[in-house]
């Protein structure tokens, strides 16, 4: 394997179509697509300072490296890439890729990042930006600290564990989502999604968890969550904290210590299809079927 060390690499396609190459303590600058169409590449302790550094690549390992803000749209159409201990400042990174692993990466401008990928593993990631992970599938995240609206829009087969998500409209239009032991803060959570399961989560959401087909909550806490479960079907929710209000669920089972208000104001909704259990007070006289 060839090794390049301590180089300042400039110009378009500086190392185009490289094979079996290691780059160490070097800078890619002032030139687009330096490693386009390369494979079996290792980059260590280096700096990417310009656009499109790793397009159409395969079998890439990047460690201890900085992607500066001008390294935008940095990694597209690449198969088999691992990025560890890196700072990634550029937006629109990692699109249309397959088999992506990021570990201990800080993503300060993660707007429109990780779109339309298949196979993503995220471990110890801090990311700030809107539309994170849009349209991707087969995602597993652990200790993800995400700040930015519209996270995980349109994703499939998502598992998130031990994370903090501050993201309005998270998990819209998703299918097969599991979130465990995490904090989720954001309005309108998981609308228009299918098969969503939340376990041991703490959730704050205005009018969240509506229009979901197949919703399960286990041992979750809802903080000041109102108008929940509207037009949800197949609800199976066990909540350990009071709920401000529940509105027009289509069917299922909701268990909580108390519910401030149960609202059925749509005459087309059959209230008898939803069992609502309030464990801290006697059976209520509200317009719902109470077990």
Spatial order of the strands forming the largest sheet:
12-13-15-17-19-18-16-14
List unreliable stretches of 5+ residues.
284-291
Q: For the record, give the distance between the C-alpha atoms at the N and C termini, rounded to a whole number.
A: 69 Å
Tally of alpha and pi helices: 0
* Number of domain modules: 2
Major β-sheet annotation: 8 strands, parallel, barrel
Oligomer: single chain
Shape: elongated
What is the N-to-C order of secondary-structure elements (H for helix, E for strand)? EEEEEEEEEEEEEEEEEEEEEEEE
| Average pLDDT | 95
Structural class assignment: mainly beta
Give the percentage of residues in beta strands.
over 45%
Number of strands: 24
The helix content, as a percent range, equals: under 10%
């Amino acid at each position: 394997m060839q090794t390049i060390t301590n180089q300042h690499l400039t110009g378009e396609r500086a190392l185009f179509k490289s094979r079996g190459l290691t780059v160490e303590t070097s800078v890619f600058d002032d030139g687009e697509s330096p490693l386009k169409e390369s494979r079996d590449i290792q980059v260590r302790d280096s700096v990417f300072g310009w656009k499109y550094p790793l397009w159409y690549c395969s079998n890439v390992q990047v460690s201890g490296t900085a992607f500066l803000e001008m390294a935008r749209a940095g990694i597209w159409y690449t198969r088999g890439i691992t990025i560890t201990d890196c700072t990634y400042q550029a937006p629109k990174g990692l699109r249309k890729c397959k088999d992506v692993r990021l570990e201990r990466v800080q993503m300060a401008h993660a707007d429109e990042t990780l779109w339309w990928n298949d196979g993503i593993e995220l471990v110890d990631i801090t990311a700030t930006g809107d539309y994170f992970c849009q349209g991707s599938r087969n995602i597993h995240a652990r200790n993800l600290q995400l700040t930015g609206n519209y996270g995980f829009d349109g994703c499939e087969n998502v598992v998130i564990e031990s994370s903090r998500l501050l993201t309005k409209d998270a998990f819209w239009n998703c299918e097969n989502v599991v979130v465990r032991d995490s904090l989720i803060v954001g309005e309108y959570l998981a609308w228009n999604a299918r098969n969503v399961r939340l376990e041991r989560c703490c959730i704050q959401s205005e009018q969240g968890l509506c229009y979901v087909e197949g919703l399960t909550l286990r041992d979750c806490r809802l903080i000041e969550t109102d108008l929940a479960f509207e037009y949800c079907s197949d609800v199976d929710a066990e909540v350990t904290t009071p709920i401000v209000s529940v509105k027009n669920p289509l069917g299922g089972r909701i268990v909580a210590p108390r519910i401030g208000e149960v609202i059925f104001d749509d005459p087309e909704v059959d209230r008898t299809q939803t069992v609502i259990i309030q464990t801290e007070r006697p059976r209520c006289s509200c317009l719902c079927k109470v077990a």
